[in-house]
Amino acid sequence: MPSDAEAASRRRVQALSAHVAGGNAADASQGAPDPRVRLTPGGGPGSLTVIDNRTGSRYEIPVREGGYVPASAFKAITAGGDGGGLRVFDPGYVNTAPCKSKICFIDGDKGILRYRGYPIEELAEKSSYLETAFALVYGDLPDAPQLREWEQTIMRHSALPVPVIAALEALPHDAHPMGVILAGLNALSTFHPEQNPALQGGNVYRSHAAQDKQIVRIIGKMTTLAAHAYHRNTGRTPAPPNQKLGYAENFLYMLDAGLDPNHKPNARLAKAMDVMFLLHAEHEMNCSTAAARHLASSGVDVYSAVAGAVGALYGPLHGGANEAVLKMLSRIGSVENIPRFLEGVKNKKEKMFGFGHRVYKNFDPRASVIRNVAEEVFELVGRDPLIDVAIALEKAARQDEYFVKRNLYPNVDFYSGLVYRALGFPPEFFTVLFAVPRAAGYLAHWRESLTDPDVKIMRPQQIYEGVWLRSYPTIDSRPPCRGEDRMWNVAPSNASRRRLAGETVEMAASHYHGYDGGSDSPSGLANRLASVHLDAGQAQRLSSPAFSAGVVAGDATSGVDALTGVTGKEP
User: Fold this and answer.
1) Is the pTM of this model over 0.85?
2) 452 catalytically annotated
3) Rounded CA separation 113/119 (Å)
C-alpha cells in the first residue's frame, strides 16, 4: 500500500500531466510541441462564409486571432422587416465573451485551472494566498522583497475606520453576514473621496498609486469586515487586527482572540484557511466577476464595483452552493442511504449539489485539493462524520454510468462546506469565506479593465416581445389589471395593524362629526364609524385582498377615510 507521500506525489504527477496535455495535442512520436506554448485557440484566425437562406445574400464574417467572432459583424445581416440586423441571443452568456483577459484560464473538459499560467495544484502546494493575489493583480509572482512589501502593506491597511465599525454595529444582530460585508464595502467608499471618480473625475484611476492604494485597502480590510460580520451574530466584538500575523492567521486571531493580545491561532489551521482562500481567489468570468467588470465599465469607484460583485456572489446559485451540499449530506445521513438517494436523483425526486459545473466537464481541480485540506483539518479538530458520507457518495457517483455519462464530477463546493463547518463556521457564513479571497480576483479584473483598449460601458441588447403600441386610456375607462402580474397582497406587520386600529377610529370620527378628541368615548367613536354607509364600489374595495390583509390608503397616515369616502358630511 503506498504511503501518504507517495500518494501525494502521484496526484501531483497526474495534475501536471493534465496541464501538459492541455498544451499538447500532437503525438510524442511525431515531435510534440512545447507544452508551455498554447495551441491555437478555436483553430486560429480566418473567416466564415454565411449565406442567409431568407434572402440568398452572402456575408463574410471575420474570425479573429483568439478564435472568436465579433458579435457586431452579425449586424450587417439584414432581411427587410424593420431593417435591423441579426442579434445573438445568449441567455446566461453561455458562449459570449465580453472581454479579453490574461488573468485566469480554465479548460473545463480537461479539469484545468490556472492563475496567470500557474496550475492551481502547484499554487496550493507551494504558494500562499497573498503571494497568489499579487500574481493575479500584477501578472507575475513577486520576488522576496516585493512579497514582503506587499504583505506588510496589506496588513497595514487592515483596520477599519471607526465610523464604519459604528455603521456595522448599527445593523440588526441577526443580519446575514453577507449583508454586513456589503454594508461595510459601501461605507468604505464614502471614506475615501480622493479616489472616487464621481468626485475627482474619470481619470483618477489612471494613477498607478491610486489603483494600488485601493487594492491594498480592500484586500486588507476584507478579513476585518468578515470578522465583524461573524461577531455581529455572536454579540461579541472582534479583536483588532494584528499586523504582525499572516493574512489567514490574523483572520482567525480577530475571530478568537477576544481581549487576549497574546492569542496565537493554530498554525496548521491557519495554513488550511490560507489554502482555502487561495483556491477561491479567482475563477475567470463567473457571475460575480462579470458583475465587477460590468460595474467598472461605467466608471464607478472600485468599492462600489467590488460591492456589486459581492452582491452577485450573495446569490445561492453562485456563492451558496456549499451550504446546500452540507444540507444534502445531512439529509442522506449515512453511507447506507446513498443508493436510495442516487436513485432519487435519477428519478428527479432528489437534487444532488456539489456535482457538475457550468464550466468543468471533468473533475474540478480544486475539489481534490480541498479533500486533502479536509483531512488535515479533521486531524486537528475531529472528524466530521459527514466526510465519510461525502467520500462514499463521490465514489458511488463516479462508478455509476448515469453520472459518468453526464460528466457529473465533484466541484469545489462538495468538500468546502465540510471544512468550514469543521472550522466552526455556521452555514450562513460560508459565502463570506468565498467573498474574502475572491476580492483579489475582482480587483485583478478591475485593474485589467482600466487599460483595456476594447472596454466600453456594458450595455447588452434584448429581444423585445412586449405589446407593440397602445394608447393611454383615462383611469375611469380602464378595466382592472388582471392575471398574475397585478399587485396582490402586501401584508402589513402586526405593528402596522396596531397603529391602524388606533388611528382609523379617531380620524374617521373626526372627519365625520368634527370630533376634537375631547368629549366622546372610544365606544362612541366606534359606533359612529360603524354608521358610515358604503356604496357598492367602496364595499368592493374594502373586500379586496389588499384591504383584507389590513392595507389602507396611505398605510398608517390616512386611515379608512379615503376608502370609505368619509368627509365630515352626514350620510
Assistant:
1) no
2) no
3) 6
Cell 484566425 sits at which residue? Answer: 45
DSSP state of 48: E
157 catalytic per annotation: no
Report how far residue 440's alpha carbon sits from residue 282's, in angstroms, rounded to the nearest whole number: 7
> To which H or E segment does residue 376 belong?
helix 365-381
| 231 tagged catalytic | no
Which position among 280, 413, 511, 561 bears the catalytic label?
413
The tens digit of pLDDT for each residue in 240-290 reads 999 999 999 999 999 999 989 999 999 999 999 999 999 999 999 999 999
CB under 8 Å to 436, separation ≥6 — which residues? 222, 223, 226, 251, 277
Q: For residues 114 and 134, is the Cβ–Cβ distance under 8 A?
A: no
The active-site residue, picked from 280, 357, 445, 511, is: 357
Confidence at residue 69, expressed as pLDDT on a 0 to 100 scale: 94
For residue 19, which amino acid is it? H
DSSP line for 294-305: HHHTTT--HHHH
Using CB atoms within 10 Å of the CB of residue 108, give its burial: 0 to 12 exposed, 13 to 18 middle, 19+ buried. middle
**HSE-up of 399 (CA within 13 Å, CB side)?**
8
Taking residues 494-503, report their average pLDDT: 80
Question: What would the pLDDT profile of 76-109 be if each residue is shown by its tens digit?
Answer: 999 989 999 999 999 999 899 999 999 999 998 8
Indicate which residue of 318, 400, 513, 555 is catalytic: 318
Q: What distance in Å separates the CA atoms of residue 94 and residue 25, rounded to the nearest whole number?
A: 25
Contact 468, 531 (CB under 8 A): no
Mean pLDDT over the full length of the chain = 84
Spatial separation of the C-alpha atoms in residues 152 and 566, rounded to whole Å: 71
